[in-house]
Design goal:
Layout: H1 3-39, H2 45-49, E1 52-53, E2 58-59, H3 62-93, H4 98-110, H5 115-129, H6 136-160, H7 164-172, H8 177-205, H9 209-214, H10 234-244, H11 248-282
Helix pairs in contact: 1-11, 3-6, 3-8, 4-6, 5-6, 6-8, 7-8, 8-11, 10-11
């Protein structure tokens, strides 16, 4: 192949990649423009800080924002330790063989299971069998199960990225295996672990199907006072305003405003993941 032909081929593929990147960004900006055009005018301090009034045709979305933060925080508390320690066991302690490969394959397949299936499972296990009822705790446990495959996979990939020489050096200096992992391996793997965990949390914060079945309520006059109370959440509130409300046309601007707040919350979590990753990467000395 001549140099000119190679140059033409490279130019064509560069153009195709650029075209698809531009199309992806254009779709994102088109979506944001559509939401901002429909809901920017309802965003106000009152909309953020007050409860819905008049059958949710007026007022704000404060209970839904607080409920989303509650369930997302509890999901993070339940899923991250379990996911990180499972990844440490699979990558550092488990004897690599057919059984571990089957476990990894199962974990990856679980990440593709539809969220409504997790909702049905959470309804049967947490709400009914364990007697949590339809509550904040049942919803958080269900979401934690849903994001667990993401956290395990991201944490294991972060552990694999740490050079083997770190482990060999720690063991050669007389440290135990756990001391080597805790002092040398984990600090280097934290950026990848944190990024995967927060991205999984961002997905959980935007899910509707699992929380409909396990704890989210249509409307509540007060905030949940314990983990066994029901709660309002932004995704479910948006679903009700957009499809189930008796005056859909009247509340459509509120639905657009709720969608903007939800997207802002997810973008905030994603930005947090990027900042945390960059912070810990700067501390690397290799």
């Amino acid at each position: 192949m001549t140099n000119n032909r190679k140059q033409i081929t490279q130019t064509i593929w560069f153009g195709i990649c650029t075209l698809f990147a531009v199309m992806t960004i254009a779709v994102l900006f088109l979506l944001l423009y559509w939401l901002i055009r429909g809901g920017a005018h309802v965003l106000s301090w009152e909309f953020i800080t007050q409860a819905p009034r008049s059958n949710m045709t007026a007022g704000g979305i404060r209970p839904a924002i607080i409920g989303t933060i509650y369930v997302a925080s509890l999901t993070l508390f339940l899923s991250v330790p379990l996911g990180v320690f499972a990844a440490i066991y699979l990558n550092e302690y488990a004897k690599q063989g057919r059984l571990v490969r089957i476990i990894r394959l199962s974990i990856r397949n679980l990440s593709g299971v539809p969220s409504i299936v997790y909702g049905l499972f959470g309804l049967g296990l947490f709400a009914s069998m364990l007697k949590f009822g339809t509550s904040l705790l049942a919803a958080a446990c269900t979401l934690a199960l849903m994001v667990l495959p993401w956290i395990i996979t991201a944490s294991e990939e972060a552990l694999k990225s740490v050079p083997k020489s770190f482990r060999e050096g720690g063991l050669a200096l007389g440290a135990t295996k756990w001391q080597t992992i805790r002092m040398l391996v984990l600090p280097s793997a934290v950026p990848g672990m944190m990024t995967g965990s927060i991205l999984g949390l961002a997905r959980a914060a935007g899910e509707t199907a699992p929380i409909i079945l396990t704890g989210a309520a249509y409307f509540l006059p007060q905030l949940p006072s314990s983990v066994f109370d029901r709660f309002m959440a932004l995704p479910y509130h948006l679903f009700i305003l957009a499809t189930q409300h008796s005056r859909v046309a009247d509340v459509r601007p509120l639905a657009f405003g709720t969608a903007l707040v939800l997207i802002g919350l997810v973008l905030f979590l994603n930005m947090g993941a990027i900042l945390i990753r960059n912070h810990f990467r700067k501390k690397r000395t290799w």
